[in-house]
Design goal:
- By secondary structure, the chain is of the alpha+beta class.
- The protein has a domain of 111 residues.
- 24% of the residues lie in helices and 26% in strands.
- This is TAFII55 protein conserved region domain-containing protein.
- Keywords: Nucleus, Transcription, Transcription regulation.
- Its main location: nucleus.
- InterPro entries: TAF7, TAFII55_prot_cons_reg.
């Protein structure tokens, strides 16, 4: 993995008062505290997911969590053109109740609330024997064979446009009959004979009956 690339993380402060004060510092508002102390220090022991967040005289616990989905970040200078800056897959949760799980329970938007449980951690209630039978049937189909109790049906369709101009795919009910090999051979022989008769010179029939012999 390249080490010269920037890694983007989200900082989510769950205490609204602390979040507003930190936001005022970042926006350089007049009422923001001057030269505040902002520090995020990760614990040396463990897997590097536990940390301590310090903001002036406020010390809060923090932890690094994996987001349910990857989030793209963009920036703009004219509110028209968007430039992608990176992908975000982790968030630093500051304050609040810290869980032992390494996965974040919620995403970033209201529809992604409790997404880890509702969408991604579901275990399908499917019988293992049923899954094994489906796998065996798929292998048979891939080999060109029909599973037990089934058959392959070849359905030919054509796109038909009706009088109202609406088109739809319809099965082809009538197919042109193909000539048998014997009929095709006889047809070619008859055609060749007709061609020979047409190209052969006709014999002289003699003088016409209307011409008197001298």
């Amino acid at each position: 993995m390249a080490t010269d690339r920037e890694e983007l993380l989200l900082l989510r402060i769950q205490d609204s008062d602390v979040a507003e004060r930190l936001n005022a510092v970042l926006l350089e508002k007049p009422d923001a505290p001057k030269d505040p102390v902002v520090e995020l220090r990760f614990d040396e022991d463990g897997e590097g997911r536990k940390a301590t967040f310090t903001f002036d005289d406020i010390v809060l616990p923090a932890s690094l969590k994996d987001l349910p989905t990857i989030v793209e970040s963009y920036k703009t200078y004219d509110d028209i053109t968007l430039v992608k800056t990176g992908d975000i897959g982790q968030v630093i949760l500051v304050g609040g109740k810290q869980s032992a799980s390494v996965k974040a329970r919620h995403g970033l938007t209201p529809p992604m609330r409790d997404a880890a449980r509702r969408m991604f951690d579901r275990t399908p209630a499917v019988d293992q024997k049923t899954m094994q039978k489906l796998e065996d049937d798929l292998l048979l189909i891939a080999q060109g064979q029909a599973p037990a109790g089934m058959e392959f049906v070849d359905v030919e369709e054509e796109y038909v446009i009706d009088d109202s101009g609406y088109g739809s795919w319809q099965p082809v009910t009538e197919k042109p009959q193909e000539a048998s090999p014997d009929q095709a051979t006889k047809k070619r022989a008859k055609k060749a004979k007709s061609s020979q008769e047409a190209s052969a010179p006709k014999p002289d029939a003699g003088p016409s009956a209307d011409v008197e012999e001298i």
